[in-house]
Amino acid sequence: MDQFTLNLIVVGLTFALYIGIAVWARAGSTAEFYAAGQGVPPVMNGMATGADWMSAASFISMAGIIAFGGYETSAYLMGWTGGYVLLALLLAPYLRKFGKFTVPEFIGDRFYSGGARLLAVICLIVISVTYVIGQMRGVGVTFSRFLEVSTDTGLYIGAAIVFAYAVFGGMKGITYTQVAQYVVLIVAYTIPALFISLQLTGSFLPQLGLIGSYAPSGGDMAFLAKLDAVVTELGFKAYTADSANYFNMFLFCMSLMIGTAGLPHVIIRFFTVPKVADARSSAGWSLVFIALLYTVAPAVGSMARLNLTTTMWPAAVTGNAFDGPAVSRADIDSKPELSWIRTWEKTGLLAMKDLNGDGLIQYINEPADLAANTKAAGEAAAALAKAADADKPAIEAKIAELAAAREGLLAEAKAGTSGKTFAEMGLKGNEVTKVDNDIMVLANPEIAALPGWVIAIVAAGALAAALSTAAGLLLAISSAISHDLIKGSINPNISEKGELLAARISMGGAIVVATYLGLNPPGFAAQVVALAFGLAAATIFPVLMMGIFSKRINKEGAIAGMLVGLIFTSVYIFIYKGWFFIPGTNWLPDTAANYYFGISPLSIGTVGAVLNFATAFVVSRVTKAPPAHVVELIESIRVPKGAGAAQAH
């Protein structure tokens, strides 16, 4: 059976399962649509939460980020898992005890303000819409590769599937569908990792293989040492190298943590369990289920990086990369085991170009300083040819200065064990001109020459990850519009049947908007994710924390804090990424040299959260304290149900 047919069968069976579950568990009331009737067992809710959280970013992108970012990008793992600890300890049980359906509803009641609720709705919609764009785009990319359709067509198919089980099933249908999707995605992620770990390290468990020995060289060298040796020989940064900016890394990790704890589509999952204790229990179970993927991700990323590198430099498998030639274009175009390169090149996510015309594809990394020097020298030479005689001496002096600097850079740029610079070896730059992070997990089984059924399962897993999170985000948008905006502000007397219809219509509309933005994304996935996490960290998380643990924060403080966090974080990101992600509208280049105090746009959510907290406390101190009934509400949320008064002994 050919690979396409196998992919079609496996993906088709999983889609039939999802739709069948949605029909079986369709929502018949608003309670079932918003919170699954608050009857989901903790273990099942933990599994559904894991699927809800492990999006296309986790399944498809994270290992790719780790593959090319190395140790420094471990902040993704620490931040995204650490956020669940905050949820389990500080938010989930209290929000469940509050007993309502949505985050804006809690904010509106706690801060006795329709304005606060409306602002929370705005923040929630912006966060969820920006986050869902990446999921819908991930669906399109996966379909384009494995079902051999265009990315846009794949996006339409994915949108139709989400519509079928999310609009009719609501939270009830989504929850049970996500349980099935978790099983699919975790099997799809771990099976290739087990095979590849056995190939490269001889260890069945990828977690142990990561710290084990490199098998092809006889086991006398640690796997990570081999990876470091290969990538540094080719001019790349060592995989295990330390971060150059620990302050920014800390802020980034913290932003991911509190952003996770503030993501509305994750928080609403804890409204679906029967009891308060179950909310804490399901958060613990979700950590267990998430850990099954997240502890494997570093091994998947590092092993994919080594497999990719040794594919491009075959001699690196048992020796040094430059002991033999790079892979040839002729081999790529003819050999079956390299067909994955040809396939991914068609998607545009992988690109190669023979810059020096030798018929080989050299995967190297010319040092950035040397590349910049070369570019500047070329620009100066072009300027010299056009300059007036009076200007030529100054330009010639600049060229001489660049040439002198280049000699020093060349001396430092000896390529690994060869003792020569890339220029001396006849290389003109990296000929693997594009390797998208998103292809590493999807291409991993093909790079490692695993069986076709493994490739098909990975395709189904990637789609399950993207669709499960997209459904959760769309439900968060739907509930914010129908329950918090329409019922909470516009038409408080709407019937339950009318509210349920409004919820389904708003979800359908949200799917249309998400599909359109997926077709015409406002920026790269990383940009969208940065805004979503930054906004969640700077707006939702602080107001929930203060709403639960501070009796003094009033509506004026909450609204002011959310506004400051929202505006500050958005503006900082737009300064570097472009206003509303429109290309060419950024004020400053998105490089470390231009960051204020070294803080990147990805890390700014932490600062926004601090400003939110500070603003709320200051404004609350100079305005009227919350009314007595709100103070009683806070106390009732924080005291366990049935707890008696303290007794003297």
From TrEMBL:
PROSITE patterns (alphabetical): NA_SOLUT_SYMP_2 (PS00457), NA_SOLUT_SYMP_3 (PS50283)
Pfam name, any one: SSF
Keywords: Cell membrane, Ion transport, Membrane, Sodium, Sodium transport, Symport, Transmembrane, Transmembrane helix, Transport
Compartment list: Membrane
Keyword Ion transport recorded: yes
Keyword Ion transport: yes
Membrane-protein topology: Multi-pass membrane protein
Transmembrane domains' residue ranges: 6-25, 53-71, 77-95, 116-133, 153-170, 182-200, 249-271, 283-304, 453-477, 524-545, 557-575, 595-619
InterPro entries: Na/Glc_symporter_sf, Na/solute_symporter, Na/solute_symporter_CS, Na/solute_symporter_VC_2705, Sodium:Solute_Symporter
NCBIfam families linked to this entry: Na_symport_lg
Family according to the record: Belongs to the sodium:solute symporter (SSF) (TC 2.A.21) family.
Protein known as: Sodium:solute symporter family protein
Organism listed in the record: Gemmobacter denitrificans
